[in-house]
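Anyone up for a design puzzle?
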């Protein structure tokens, strides 16, 4: 079973087929083909939305299969049918996506999708772990900024000390020159 969650990307109502994205197992993979007959068999309400061209922000859980033409939706899965504890690989992918700090926030569609298939505890636990990672990242960033600031201050202090030494040496040489070679009147 290859469970995924996706958004209807395109639907061609006259031809009866479309494409759904792979939101959990994405990694640059193309959208998956689906046929309206497959959708009608497993989720008549979803099929009706497709037929009425209500595809904006239309998401659903599905199982896919590999065919000789590529991957396609095998059936729509109702969230209540998914026992996350029996799909450790799916849970791992969900966790990896949830904890991906590339995005500042967990997308609302993703939060809703995970809430549909799990207890509220999973979402709470993932939020705690994500917040902990964000705090750790923030702390590390502040430490890096502090280190850069200290390095800059040290660099400027060394530059100032060298400037003072140069000026003192120039003054010493000027005094030496005046002592050995007094100005003629």
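Challenge accepted. My sequence:
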């Amino acid at each position: 079973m290859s469970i995924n969650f996706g958004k209807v990307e395109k639907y061609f109502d006259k031809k009866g087929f479309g494409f759904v994205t792979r939101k959990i197992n994405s990694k640059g993979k193309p959208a998956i083909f689906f046929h309206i007959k497959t959708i009608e068999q497993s989720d008549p309400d979803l099929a009706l939305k497709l037929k009425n061209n209500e595809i904006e922000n239309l998401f659903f859980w599905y199982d896919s299969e590999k065919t000789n033409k590529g991957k396609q939706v095998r059936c729509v899965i109702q969230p209540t049918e998914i026992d996350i504890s029996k799909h450790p690989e799916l849970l791992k992918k969900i966790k990896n996506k949830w904890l991906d700090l590339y995005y500042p926030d967990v997308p609302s569609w993703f939060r809703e999708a995970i809430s549909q298939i799990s207890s509220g505890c999973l979402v709470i636990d993932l939020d705690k772990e994500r917040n902990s990672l964000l705090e750790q990242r923030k702390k590390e960033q502040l430490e890096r900024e502090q280190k850069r600031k200290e390095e800059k201050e040290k660099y400027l202090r060394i530059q100032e000390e060298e400037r003072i030494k140069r000026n003192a040496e120039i003054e010493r040489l000027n005094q030496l020159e005046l002592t050995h070679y007094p100005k003629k009147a």
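A detail worth pointing out: The radius of gyration is 32 Å.
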